[in-house]
């Protein structure tokens, strides 16, 4: 459960503001005005702090609450500009398009790919195969994960499939992220970028209905996940 100790606003108001920013194409100043129209006077800088503070917490809870995913994965990375520099958002979906995991990295190389695969395996289990593009770094990352699995006595071995055609699914899935950040003024720090992207991914998972809940409202489901 998210603790709002020290926060002078109702929990529902905080979660509503965070979800609204993550889900819809609004600026913090737009959101400040929207909240004021609903009787909540809050500065845009405070709204930014809420998003950065609470998004990663909700994202971690979402991973433990989402439904099990399929064992055939599609993995790719997309460029994100932070502090005027290109960084890389690693993402994976299963063959049905369900989001598996995501991770922002300052570099695109074998250690970064292996770190992402380790994170995805921890929250989704071991897949039978991972489809990637022609990236040598991603292939090397899978080989490293297989070596680690073998070292710990696991009989499982992840198959690597290199296919641009099959990987179109994850490339199309990047569009939600790109569409949301296109209208932002840009990320000023790695921490704020990573936190905000975590939250945007959760909003995307909610839209995909990856949770076992009778709730039809995106915000209510977001609030349920937050606890």
Task: Show the helix and strand layout.
Elements: H1 11-23, H2 28-37, H3 44-65, E1 72-82, E2 85-94, E3 99-105, H4 110-124, E4 129-132, H5 136-151, E5 159-162, H6 168-181, H7 190-207, H8 218-226
Parallel strand pairs: 1-4, 4-5
Antiparallel strand pairs: 1-2, 2-3
Function: Involved in the transposition of the insertion sequence.
Domain Integrase catalytic: 64-226
GO molecular function: DNA binding
Any overview of this molecule?
The chain is α/β, with parallel strands linked by helices. The chain has two domains: 11-66 and 186-226, no CATH class; 72-174, Ribonuclease H-like superfamily/Ribonuclease H (Nucleotidyltransferase, domain 5), CATH 3.30.420.10. Helix content is 52%, strand content 16%. It has helices spanning 11-23, 28-37, 44-65, 110-124, 136-151, 168-181, 190-207, 218-226; strands at residues 72-82, 85-94, 99-105, 129-132, 159-162. It has a five-stranded mixed β-sheet with strand order 3-2-1-4-5, sandwiched between helices. β4, α5 and β5 form a beta-alpha-beta unit. It is globular, with a radius of gyration of 18 Å.
Short description:
By secondary structure, the chain is an alpha/beta fold. The protein has 8 helices and 5 strands, in the order αααβββαβαβααα. Residues 64-226 form the Integrase catalytic domain.
């Amino acid at each position: 459960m998210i603790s709002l100790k020290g926060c002078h606003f109702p929990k529902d108001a905080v979660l509503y503001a965070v979800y609204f920013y993550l889900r819809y194409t609004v600026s913090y100043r737009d959101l400040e005005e929207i909240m004021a129209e609903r009787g909540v006077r809050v500065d845009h800088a405070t709204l930014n702090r809420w998003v950065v503070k609470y998004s990663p917490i909700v994202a971690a809870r979402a991973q433990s609450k989402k439904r099990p995913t399929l064992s055939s994965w599609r993995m790719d990375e997309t460029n994100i500009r932070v502090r005027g520099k290109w960084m890389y958002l690693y993402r994976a979906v299963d063959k049905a398009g369900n989001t598996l995991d995501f991770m922002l990295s300052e570099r695109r190389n074998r250690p970064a790919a292996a770190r992402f695969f380790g994170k995805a395996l921890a929250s989704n289990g071991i897949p039978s195969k991972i489809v990637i593009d022609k990236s040598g770094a991603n292939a090397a990352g899978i080989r490293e994960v297989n070596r680690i699995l073998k070292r710990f006595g696991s009989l499982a071995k992840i198959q690597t499939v290199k296919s641009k055609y099959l990987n179109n699914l994850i490339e199309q899935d990047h569009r939600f992220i790109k569409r949301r950040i296109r209208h932002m003024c840009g990320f000023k720090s790695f921490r704020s970028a990573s936190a905000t992207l975590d939250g945007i991914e959760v909003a995307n998972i909610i839209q995909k209905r990856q949770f076992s809940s009778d709730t039809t409202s995106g915000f209510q489901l977001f609030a349920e996940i937050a606890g």
